[in-house]
Structure formats: C-alpha cells, structure tokens
Design the sequence.
C-alpha cells in the first residue's frame, strides 16, 4: 500500500515536470523552433484547431520558421492567429507558405521572459508540493485507520520527502537551463 502510494506520487510529480517542459517550450528564445507555434489555435472552419494539425511546420534556418498549410485557403486564418498571439512575430505570406522571422531578443524582453520562466518553474514546484501534501494526507489517514504503523508512516514520509526533493531539483534544473538559453546572446 505504501509503495503504491509513493509510486503514484512519483508519477504525478513526473507529470508536473513534463507539464513544465511543455510550458517552457512555448517561451520564445532567440532561436526559431517549430514548438513555438505548434500549439497555436487557428480557426479551422469555425473550430479552433492546433496549427500542427493543419500544416507542416519547419525551421530551415536558426532564425526562420516556415508554415506550409495543407489547405492553401487557411493561409489568412493562420496569419491572423499568429498576429493575435503574444509571440511578437510578423508573418510573411507568399501565397504558398508563411515565413516567420524570429528577431533577436532585446535585453528588456529577455528579462521579461526570464521572469515568465521563474513563474512557470514556481508553479511546477507548487504542483510537486501539492502532490506531496496529498500523499502525506493519505499516509496519515492510513496510519490513523491503523492500516500502517507509526514507524511505517515515518519511513514513508522520509521516502516521500526524498522523492519530492528529487523532483523540485529537476524543476529547478529545467528552469535554470531555459534561463541560460534565454540569456545566451
């Protein structure tokens, strides 16, 4: 029972780290990456659809993203979605393909983005701690119901804290790596 509870907690903490990674992929750095626009919602005949489900997205150069929709009629809708987004990129449409030139980031914009990364990392740390709190509550309830002993509960709490520390350190590592990438000129 204790092992199952700790395995569940570890799985949920890993999910929080994975969610952080997905969030950090959408933070724009000076480099062009297809993941920057893949999840952008485009009005596809009245239905908001992710851009990667309606087009081929590539990054042929370090500062260029190309978007080639499978349906040429969607070019203007894709352009509008990019302009409405908070990416700060201006699309260039040649009738077949949309090109996005990713300009180098200014120092002020880098600092703003670092703050965003810190915020997302803190949200992930909070999520990991919430998982720990839920697991501790579960362990205390099991101890209160006499399904585990006091010693087993203390041992499980120690193991849970080690797991929590491991995932908080992983969140910090991912956040720091993204921060370094942002500050790289």
Sequence:
């Amino acid at each position: 029972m204790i092992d199952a509870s700790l395995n569940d907690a570890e799985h949920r903490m890993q999910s929080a780290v994975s969610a952080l990674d997905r969030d950090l992929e959408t933070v724009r750095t000076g480099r062009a990456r297809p993941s920057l626009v893949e999840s952008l919602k485009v009005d596809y005949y009245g239905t908001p659809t992710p851009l990667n489900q309606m087009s081929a997205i590539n990054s042929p150069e370090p500062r260029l993203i190309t978007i080639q929709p499978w349906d040429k009629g969607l070019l203007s809708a894709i352009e509008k979605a990019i302009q409405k987004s908070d990416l700060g990129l201006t699309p260039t449409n040649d009738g077949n393909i949309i090109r996005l030139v990713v300009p180098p980031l200014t120092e002020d914009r880098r600092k703003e983005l670092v703050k965003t990364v810190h915020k997302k990392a803190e949200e992930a740390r909070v999520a990991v701690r919430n998982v720990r709190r839920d697991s501790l509550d579960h362990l205390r309830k099991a101890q209160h119901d006499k399904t585990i002993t006091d010693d087993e509960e203390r041992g499980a709490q120690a193991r849970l804290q080690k797991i929590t520390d491991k995932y908080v350190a992983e969140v910090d590592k991912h956040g720091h790596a993204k921060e370094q990438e942002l500050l790289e000129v």
Q: What stands out?
A: The two ends are 51 Å apart (CA to CA). The chain has two domains: 2-25+106-183, 34-101. The mean pLDDT is 86.
